[in-house]
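YM 10:42: Nucleoid-associated protein N784_08275 sequence, as discussed on the call
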Amino acid sequence: MKGNMKNMMKQMQQMQRKMEKAQEELHEMTFEATAGGGMVKVVAKGTKEIVDVEIQEDVVDPDDIEMLQDLIIAATNDVIKQVDDKTNATMGQFTKGLNMPGMF
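YM 10:58: structure's back
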């Protein structure tokens, strides 16, 4: 039994290192989303930090600020969803079959 426990601990340590590496890689990735047919673009890092927002001049209408706000919100929500989806897909491989509520 001692050997099995030692082997299991070794496997857990290997899995932990793989998870840490995967998380580091995710944090280095960038994601982008657009709204309004590309009129607004939002870029985020895998940490969900927004690093860039690009707005085409054509969409800036002083009489319709609400539309611009809506486009920024839509693009931001989309890019955050992309990060979440990628994180869940990447990190979920480590928790498959473990039945651990609240994990990724």
